[in-house]
Amino acid sequence: MAVENNGNGVQIEVPKTCKAGVVVDEGPNFRVEVEDVPVPEPGPNDVLIRMNATGICYSDIHYMLMDLPLPPMSHFGVRSPGHEGAGVVVKLGSNVTNWKVGDRAGIKPAYDACFNCELCWTGKETHCDESPQIGLQFPGSYQQYILSPARYTQRIPDGVDDFTAGPIMCSGSTIYASIKESGLKPGDWAVFPGAGGGVGHMGVQLAKAMGMRVVGIDGGDEKKELCMKLGCDAFVDFTKVKDVAEEVVKITDGKGAHGVFVTATSASAYASAPMMTRIGGKVLCVGLPPAGTAVAGADPLLFVGKNLHIIGTKVGTLLDTQRALEFAARGLLKPIYEVFPLAKLPDAVEKLRSGKVAGRLVVDFNS
Ligand SMILES: [Zn+2]
Ligand SMILES: [Zn+2]
User: Fold this and answer.
1) Which of 38, 129, 196, 258 is the most buried (most CB within 10 A)?
2) Which phi and psi (to 5°) does residue 195 adopt?
3) Protein residues placing their CB within 5 Å of the ion ligand 2
4) How far is the CA of 86 from the centre of ligand 1 (A)?
């Protein structure tokens, strides 16, 4: 006789099919449609999660455009992108003992890790060889019911609702990880090219909460208003200022920034970042430009003369994500988002693709 493993005796009815945003015509002319797809069955070590909310991340668009040096989603038989979701566990695999049906759970970009290699042992598990990407190699959070390995599923703390938790799973934890890696200290100048975007606007808040002085760089009055509201000490509008780097140096005591977190994805953002740093300053590469379109770096003379550091940081680990969620639980990190109903998921993707989004777009699976 089959024995249901529900952890606590709670049963949540699981339908046979569910709604999913799926990619059609992968490549430069892709579009997203909402379809009915089968609800997957958890393997022995998985949990099945019902998404309540998913954020829309520009990486999803990269995967659908196929402009990163990665095999396409279709190579893995995946049709739904999405890697920043929040919901509730509705079914447990037979071996799962540390989750209960009804527990709140989040989906972040890294699907799993081996926990048996040097990278996993040193807090770099997102670089592990066995750390695939959800929404690329496994169906992602545009699908309402998805699987996640129990050991790598994120718990969502009390006081953080699903619309807040979703975007923190990728953007918030990614920029938390980058700020942590930068080693910047309270009082240091942190500069965010792309400060009004999904990742940048959370970086501004976290850096402020950590006691740094923050300069936002972005284009347009809407982004400026958002950045100043979130606590930027200064804002540089690249559509209005002739030399952005010069302006940043002027603001940062005439010496330049201690850290420049490039959350923008343009070649110009990457090209100007080293020019904004002070001696010993750091450029953190966070935003993903389409392959071959940008270079992070500078003339070696600048590296030597400025003791320049250029560092790439990836998405957040389990711990980074936990920490970022804790900032939210304490009211220090509040993603700014616009909610779209599920039927309008394709419109949300199009809007982000146009580049005109201040903050984050989040899809509500229950409306
Ligand atoms: Zn993302
Ligand atoms: Zn590993």
Assistant:
1) 196
2) -60, -25
3) 113-114, 117, 120, 128
4) 14
Which ligand is located closest to the Cα atom of residue 117? 2
Q: Which ligand is nearest to the CA of 135?
A: 1
Q: Give the 3-state secondary structure of residue 258.
A: strand
For residues 214 and 204, what is the distance between their CA atoms, to the nearest angstrom? 7
- Is residue 108 within 8 A of residue 138, CB to CB? The reply is no
The C-alpha angle 332, 195, 220, rounded to 5 degrees, equals 125
Neighbours of ion ligand 1 (CB under 5 A): 57, 59, 170
- Nearest residue to 143 (alpha-carbon basis) of 21, 264, 233: 21
Q: How far is the CA of 190 from the centre of ligand 2 (A)?
A: 31
Asked if residues 357 and 223 have their Cβ atoms less than 8 Å apart, the reply is no
Q: How far apart are CA 228 and CA 205, in angstroms?
A: 11
pLDDT tens, per residue, the chain with 367 residues: 445 677 777 788 999 999 999 999 999 999 999 999 999 999 999 999 999 999 999 999 999 999 999 999 999 999 999 999 999 999 999 999 999 999 999 999 999 999 999 999 999 999 999 999 999 999 999 999 999 999 999 999 999 999 999 999 999 999 999 999 999 999 999 999 999 999 999 999 999 999 999 999 999 999 999 999 999 999 999 999 999 999 999 999 999 999 999 999 999 999 999 999 999 999 999 999 988 999 999 999 999 999 999 999 999 999 999 999 999 999 999 999 999 999 999 999 999 998 778 889 999 999 9
Q: Which domains does the chain have, with CATH numbers?
A: 17-155+336-364 (3.90.180.10), 172-312 (3.40.50.720)
